[in-house]
Amino acid sequence: GDSVTQMEGPVTLSEEAFLTINCTYTATGYPSLFWYVQYPGEGLQLLLKATKADDKGSNKGFEATYRKETTSFHLEKGSVQVSDSAVYFCALRGTGGFKTIFGAGTRLFVKA
Amino acid sequence: NAGVTQTPKFQVLKTGQSMTLQCAQDMNHNSMYWYRQDPGMGLRLIYYSASEGTTDKGEVPNGYNVSRLNKREFSLRLESAAPSQTSVYFCAVDLGDNTGELFFGEGSRLTVL
Known about the structure:
The structure holds 2 protein chains of 2 kinds.
Chain A: E1 3-6, E2 11-14, E3 19-21, E4 23-26, E5 32-38, E6 44-50, E7 56-59, E8 62-65, E9 75-77, E10 86-93, E11 100-102, E12 106-111
Parallel strand pairs in A: 2-12
Antiparallel strand pairs in A: 1-4, 3-9, 5-6, 5-10, 7-8, 8-9, 10-11, 10-12
Chain B: E1 4-7, E2 10-13, E3 19-25, E4 32-38, E5 42-49, E6 56-57, E7 65-67, E8 75-78, E9 87-94, E10 102-104, E11 108-112
Parallel strand pairs in B: 2-11
Antiparallel strand pairs in B: 1-3, 3-8, 4-5, 4-9, 5-6, 7-8, 9-10, 9-11
């Protein structure tokens, strides 16, 4: 079945450092891919998405490119801020399905 | 928050007790979902409802029942709670026509002693 694997955390960075959180997936066909973010005590919020190969999703300085050849959707940000401290989830929605499958989440700590 | 409202936000149960988690949306979307979140395991789908009157099992349905009586409400019932059901439960709504873009409620933290 479909699955998502993302790098284990926690990831600890200093403010203004470059962020990469790796995400790879297994799915048939061409799933839609997502990154969600969860701030402490809150529900998940959609951060960005990509629906076809080579699409780049972007939002709030975060980017991720849908790479079909490597089945990956890595999250990047050029300069993180303390306010980016949160848990980040990679997710996919398979072709023709109703289920969104989530990775285990990666916790990010950003130090001032 | 407007959008998806979950009640209660916190609940403590004893093993064997029953309870219902309520979820209501004011966004007029068809698909609704119940997930549970456990440390190190991400979110796992319990049940979903693609439209009013229909429900389907997700990855971890055992020990749960759901009800989608109208478009607005989707409830999750634990008939006989077990400690393994201690978790944070999230209700979500698909913002489009099965796009996979989910809008989440704030969560319900359940502890089973």
